[in-house]
UniProtKB/TrEMBL annotation, chains A, B:
The protein's name: Helix-turn-helix domain containing protein
Residue stretches making up the HTH tetR-type domain: 6-66
Keyword Transcription regulation listed: yes
Keyword DNA-binding on entry: yes
Entry superkingdom: Bacteria
Matching InterPro entries: DNA-bd_HTH_TetR-type_CS, Homeodomain-like_sf, HTH-type_TetR-like_transc_reg, HTH_TetR
Amino acid sequence: MGRWEPDARGRMAQAALELYLDPGYEQTTVADIAERAGVTERTFFRHFADKREVLFSGSEQFQRVVLAAIEAAPEGAPPLDAVAAGMDAAAAALQSQPDPTFPRRRAAVIAANPSLQERELLKMATLATASARALVARGAEPGEAAVAAEAAGAAFRLAFERWTTSDEPLDLRALVADGVARFRALA
Amino acid sequence: MGRWEPDARGRMAQAALELYLDPGYEQTTVADIAERAGVTERTFFRHFADKREVLFSGSEQFQRVVLAAIEAAPEGAPPLDAVAAGMDAAAAALQSQPDPTFPRRRAAVIAANPSLQERELLKMATLATASARALVARGAEPGEAAVAAEAAGAAFRLAFERWTTSDEPLDLRALVADGVARFRALA
């Protein structure tokens, strides 16, 4: 959901994001990104399959953080508690990254492009499936695991959307916790 | 999520689905679909933007059914009750369509193609947003409306996936109701 790499990958991601905001995603080529990041196109393609993937380079690390926290949750914790701990860990990591403006600018690019929105949704759906699997590995019943993973994933998505679009600085972890509490209160 | 049109649109959708299953989505052209459905390519493009959209021709009607049921829910019904009524109406409509094998075959094509999965997720996300808006129009607090809409949408998705992949015939409405009950039981 954000940027996690401080190196050449990070430079390319920053360059891409700046260009996707101005002149725009459709108007930007891989050659433009490589030039701005000071790398060759070949280097770009060693790191990313295409210009869309630049925006999703943090997805794998995001998922690793979530799954590690699910696995580290106390034995016997209810499924929703375990997966909420995963989303909290991801929120903490996103908030503490070196460039806090990256997620917000990235979100603006994605909001403006349906094909990017689709990719973001697929990544979140993949995360929910992986989270449910991790809950089942901890002993949760599959149906309950799927529902807990969907609830926590949706809580994260709604919180993230508010966090990246708010005019004032908000605490992403608090927004996620509030969202999870709302799912718990459904009646 | 399925097929709703009995006419030329429906014929094209059937032809497309048959070809997407064999020889496959990637291998099929609009010309192939038009030929099999006995129409011109021009007719195809009057109905669908591209070969991907054929599979989503029922989305608008699906959304209309959901939103109408939300609006028709008893005054004062809790948001989750109202949106669950919407998903139940959609499940009933899907189960009673003329060709009950269509959703299952369609789901198989989508499961095999990430770009189709992405589109399906975007349609469901759009539906959740529209459902939340309909709940707010009924007087729900926006945060509660969003969570109820996400929960009911996820319950539908999980139920639909089970319904379209099960070896035995299942009752989609019962699966949706069970999923909603699981969200209510989250703690």
